[in-house]
Amino acid sequence: MADLYLQDDGKTLQNKLGIRGDPATLAGKEAVHVNSRLMELRESGLPQVQGFPLVKAIHRHLFQDVYEWAGKPREINLARAIYAEGRSDAVQFTSAQRIDAEGQRLFEDLTAANYLRGLTREQFAKGLSPFFGRLNTLHPFREGNGRTQRLVWEHVAKEAGHELSFEGISRERMTVVSIAASTGDHEPVRRMLAELLDPARSQALRTATRFLEANRTPEIDWQDRYVATTEPGQEYRGIFVGAGGEHFLMHDRKNIYVGNLADLPDRGRGFDSGDAVAFHAGPARLQALTAPSSASSITESAGLTATERLRRNVDRRTEELAAERERERPAREAALERERADERKRGLERKKQRTQTQKKDHGLEP
After folding, report:
1. Distance between CA 285 and CA 298 in Å, rounded?
2. Pairing of strands 276-280, 255-260
3. Angle 171-182/121-138 helices, nearest 10 degrees?
4. Which of 57, 173, 227, 268 could form a disulfide with 264 if both were Cys (CB 3.0 to 4.6 A apart)?
């Protein structure tokens, strides 16, 4: 079925802003309008409805200036492609015909669970994880699912007595978490939620990602990396980037982590950017958190500016990612060609079947 939401260029969504054939401009304008509507909801509260209708009402409010179909479940089937660990398949979202029924069932189950009220932070994170995965797999709208879902779950958390904000979660981490959840693995979701519900860890993550955002460049984009605070009780090995306040940044050539200086020998004194680091993560400490007063203060221990330090250490990963993508490109292209060949084969079979049926209808075959 053709994507009825797209313009003739196959890339730009039909929109109310009069933008034609320019998805980048549309994305920028959309963000402006949605952020304005988001501020309205933050100030005045969410629409006074419950269950799946609340999901639709939030989407309608956020995207009303941009899309005619704001708040309306999609009418086409969608899938998310996966190119990870040698896979080139796709995760299918809920079929368009089942969205309303599955959405209603999801919130009926949440109601049966008393909306997860009366639980500790850890219990709430574990209990919310499968619901997070189900709504993500439902993917009810053609565009804007993530922004809508975050508001829904922040509201559910608040009603259950918990403070939840998704600030600091990178685009790459959300993608990893969502793909895992869609395949039935809820542990990455639980870990993310447990981190965000922990005041010390969530504050450390926000401080670090604000720093990364302030030093963001096309070559160094934290949104394209998995960024997290260290998980208490876990062992880590990687490359030291820099420190500020009571925390430090490190990477393992794939992910970026925010750790506690208290977990390092002599609180990290003597560590320079690029040094190897290995440690056992302890619990975060809320009272010790310090937001850097400037971008350079988070890396003062190594005597380099923030941008210089990030370029030295993170650029290395940028080059590695580019090389990985180049190595994976033949496999992706081969998978795509196989898919096209299979579709051509299925088309020929359907044509052959239609021809045989027509012959039988006209008495041309015994």
Report:
1. 17
2. unpaired
3. 80
4. 268
Question: Considering the domain 222-318 in this protein, what is its CATH number?
Answer: 2.40.50.140
Pairing of strands 255-260, 226-229: parallel
Three-state SS annotation for the chain:
CCCCCECCCCCCECCCCCCCCCHHHHHHHHHHHHHHHHHHHHHHCCCCCCCHHHHHHHHHHHHCCCCCCCCCCCCCCCEEECCCCCCCCEEECCCHHHHHHHHHHHHHHHHHCHHHCCCCHHHHHHHHHHHHHHHHHHCCCCCCHHHHHHHHHHHHHHHCCCCCCCCCCCHHHHHHHHHHHHCCCCHHHHHHHHHHHCHHHHHHHHHHHHHHHHCCCCCCCHHHCEEEECCCCCEEEEEEEEEECCEEEEECCCEEEEEEHHHCHHHHCCCCCCCEEEEECCCCCHHHCCCCCCHHHHHHHHCCCHHHHHHHHHHHHHHHHHHHHHHHHHHHHHHHHHHHHHHHHHHHHHHHHHHHHHHHHCCCCC
Q: Where are the domains of the chain?
A: 23-197, 222-318
Residues, the chain, total? Answer: 366
Task: Kindly report the number of other CB atoms within 10 A of residue 10's CB atom.
Answer: 10
What is the separation of C-alpha 269 from the centre of its chain, rounded to a whole number of angstroms?
Answer: 35
Per DSSP, what are the bridge partners of residue 243? 248
Residue numbers in the chain where pLDDT is lower than 70: 1, 81-90, 284-329, 331-337, 339-340, 342-343, 347, 357-366
Q: What is the pLDDT of residues 217-270, one digit of tens each?
A: 777 789 999 999 999 999 999 999 999 889 999 999 889 999 999 999 999 999
Q: What is the pLDDT of residues 53-101, one digit of tens each?
A: 999 999 999 999 999 999 999 999 998 765 444 444 567 899 999 999 9
Q: Taking the domain 23-197, which CATH number applies?
A: 1.10.3290.10
